[in-house]
Amino acid sequence: MTGYASLLAAEVGSTRLEVCVADITSLAVDAIVNAANRTLLGGGGVDGAIHRAAGPELRIACEQLGGCATGSAKITRGFRLPASHVIHAVGPVWNGGAHREEELLTSCYRSALQLAAGHGLSSIAFPAISTGIYRFPPERAARIAVSTVAAELAAAPRGIGRVVFCCFGKDIADHHIAAFADLGLA
Fold this sequence. Notes:
Elements: E1 6-12, E2 15-21, E3 31-36, H1 45-54, H2 56-63, E4 73-77, E5 85-90, H3 101-118, E6 123-126, H4 138-155, E7 162-167, H5 170-182
Parallel strand pairs: 2-7, 3-5, 3-6, 6-7
Antiparallel strand pairs: 1-2, 4-5
């Protein structure tokens, strides 16, 4: 993968986990994960950036999917992106934490990993799902992201050799780095 420098890297079994600050649409990985809304038809933030970079073919492909439930994920080709696939994961809107938000965010990461493995993909990059307009507390979201991915890979490696936590800013990356440290991965 090119286009970024890792701020932190660790191994979980045979999988390399990395934290970087970069534009996720520039990463040459097998799949980038889109922090999508339930329609899968584009929106703001990372979702809009991915749709713009992938081109109009992505929207056409997403129209065929019929939307996606919160906590789930669906996959399309990457079209004009360096990544060959886009995994569209629908994260929860933060409503104070009493509405299964943590469970649904955990499910996003699990579902994306399962789709990647099921399609024989070996590298995947995640944004900080739900931390933008959906207002999920970034520190909490980073802990869920890193612990879920590490636990899933430790339990069943799935053939994924590299996972990148691609953060839009250094502040979000710092939350991921702290999560690595909390889990004893750094």
